[in-house]
């Protein structure tokens, strides 16, 4: 199906994920800036899973599924298997702390929270679903 | 992603071309790190061909803020597309970083 993509956990594959999201949103005529934000949010979640959940193991994979409900919302479902983490419960560090500690990470999920209208973590057996919804304006 | 560092009319310029994401941000980190290590006091970042930036790239810029301040190094970014600059704005980094529209404005900021 063309609204689904499966990629191995390699950071080099993130570009492929972004291209997939971008092209699908373009097809639904979602404006560039909004689409760009959604591409970013999916990239951030996928990067997090690849790096932190799967240690960039190319034998592991993650799935991305997108459903566009016309003039209403776009639903993103990112899935993987294994130890999941509840990305909704992630506590935002303050920008000041990140800057002071000279950390190079930590802002990805802040961006996701700011971009998406809702986030949900669903765990069934060994399968994790990271579900994000973005409302779209009626044209 | 391609990254290059050059000196142009006395200005040190780092040019980014392509996507800065989790797989490529390390090279941006190395380029800025090298400039700081060399003792550059003024660094321009040419973002005219920066197509995409994720938190990994933003994190690189943020991680140098304290060091730049401590060493009185000026860093100015210029030429961000609307899409890219929106990502900086989402985090409020437009308030913390020096961002200009054009190369001329960026140079003026450094030399003026």
Q: Give the N-terminus to C-terminus distance of chain A in angstroms.
A: 27 Å
Give the radius of gyration of chain A: 15 Å
CATH superfamily of chain B: STAS domain
Q: Which architecture of chain B does the CATH hierarchy give at level 2?
A: 2-Layer Sandwich
CATH overall fold name of chain B? Transcription Regulator spoIIAA
DSSP helical segment count of chain A: 4
Distance between termini of chain B?
32 Å
Report Rg of chain B.
Answer: 13 Å
Walk me through the topology:
The complex is a heterodimer of chains A (139) and B (112).
Chain A: E1 4-8, H1 14-27, H2 32-53, E2 61-69, E3 73-81, H3 95-100, H4 108-115, E4 118-124, E5 127-135
Antiparallel strand pairs in A: 1-2, 2-3, 3-5, 4-5
Helix pairs in contact in A: 1-2, 2-4
Chain B: E1 2-8, E2 11-20, H1 25-37, E3 42-53, H2 55-70, E4 74-78, H3 82-91, E5 98-100, H4 103-111
Parallel strand pairs in B: 2-3, 3-4, 4-5
Antiparallel strand pairs in B: 1-2
Explained architecture:
The complex is a heterodimer of chains A (139) and B (112). Chain A is α+β, with helices and mostly antiparallel strands and 139 residues long. Chain A has a single domain (4-135), classed as Heat Shock Protein 90 (2-Layer Sandwich), CATH 3.30.565. Chain A has four helices and five strands; from the N terminus they run E-H-H-E-E-H-H-E-E. In chain A, strands 1-2-3-5-4 form a five-stranded antiparallel sheet, with helices on one face. In chain A, helix 2 (32-53) packs antiparallel against helix 4. The two termini of chain A are 27 Å apart. Chain B is an alpha/beta fold. Chain B has a single domain (2-8, 11-102), classed as 2-Layer Sandwich (Transcription Regulator spoIIAA). In chain B, 43% of the residues lie in helices and 33% in strands. Chain B has four helices and five strands. Chain B has helices at residues 25-37, 55-70, 82-91, 103-111, and strands at 2-8, 11-20, 42-53, 74-78, 98-100. In chain B, helix 1 (25-37) runs parallel beside helix 2. The termini of chain B are far apart.
